[in-house]
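Researcher: Re-running this chain for the archive, since the previous output was lost when a drive failed. Same request as before.
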Amino acid sequence: MKKVKRILRILLWVLVGIAILFLLLHTPPARNMIKSVLSRTVAGRAGGTLDIGRITYRLWRGEVTLEDVEFDYPGLRAEAHRLEASLFSRGGMSIEVDNPRFFLREEPRMSQPVRRSSPPPWKVLQYIGAVSVDKGRFEWGSASTRGEIEGSLRLARSGTEGRSREHNWLLTGDVQGSVGDNSPIPMKIAANFGLQSEDLRLEEIRIDAYASVLSARGALSQQDFITGTFRGGFRSAWWRGNNP
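Model: Regenerated structure tokens:
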């Protein structure tokens, strides 16, 4: 009987300790510490700099919210007003991104690029079940040209093949894009892709613009964090009609 009481007393103190730890983790100093650790960890793996304006979380529900997020990497700048993640969603982590902006610019290459042995950035997809991007904007520019694409995208896991350890996702979106001073063109995007070893495998990506279609299939291999090598082919059908 004394042994049972001792075990119960130990379990009680363990539970009290866990409760105190949860309470401490939700204090402002703990949030600042976790924000700092998260920024250093992500920036160290990617080779850039990450700044998080504010972080809040509900650990008992597995919910994390980041606000005013900015990421800088030579040639790329990304920012988002708000990012919400649900860690315990069915099929993997669920993420909602509000008003993200991506700026791809022409710059000299890094003197010390990310090592090829580092996991490619798309490997993080294996932990993700769904991503929703609202009011996103992607811009690129160089000395000779500039362009932009904006709209909404939805990414969802479509299945897992256990034998080959492949993970597959479906991407859909309604966007509009323009190059230079041309008027924006509405487009629909649909893609089926997956992970295989270190490569991002494109089963098919299809872009419909007016009555024309551009599609591609192949695989993407990493060179550094934002560049890679594409192996595959493209097909187009610009004859399917006239632009209005």
